[in-house]
Amino acid sequence: MPAPVVAVNALLASGQYKPLLAILKGFRNGAVYGAKIRAPHSLVMTFLFRSGSLYEKFRAILEATFTHSKNLASFVFGYKTITTLLRWLQSEQLQYHSFIAAFVTGYFVFGKYNKVNEQINLYLLSRILYGLAKLAVKRRYIPEPQFSTFPWFAAIVWGIVLWLFEYERDTLQGSLRSSMTYLYDDSNVWHDITDFLIYNKPPIKN
After folding, report:
1. Which of residues 206 and 97 earns the better pLDDT score?
2. Model-level pTM?
């Protein structure tokens, strides 16, 4: 094994500089996870709903994947850096450190509007609303329901989103609107067997 690799392995095993190395590995994991999540999603959504040449589609996929990977890596790097500094300054880890670090980093990394950041922020919004409802029960701020609430949760979510789609669709996020158009509007239109079963719309004739 080459000497530099041996030296790096020894450093990693020693536990020295662990906070700094954790920041670097956080950056690495953010980049990898962002690419893993975005690439297949972007591939499917681009070929389902985006028009343009094959080159343009692959370029869009690569750009979205790069943006997601870069932003997630940057966020993890910034978050872990700030929490490490706060813990060092106060000689202990406090709960509000997490909020401050994420607040500051989120503003600079995910505060710039683009489609990728919009989707990530909306994804997190749905998760934290669900999590806060469960936390309220856990902390006994509200009584624990004596019946299954998930069917009612599903009913309210789907009732609201379909009402918005039918009557206020310009308020919905773009990719959701495209998906729902495909499901609910395009299924009302056909001309013959080809665009009833085989294609969503008649193939373009040259």
Report:
1. 97
2. 0.80
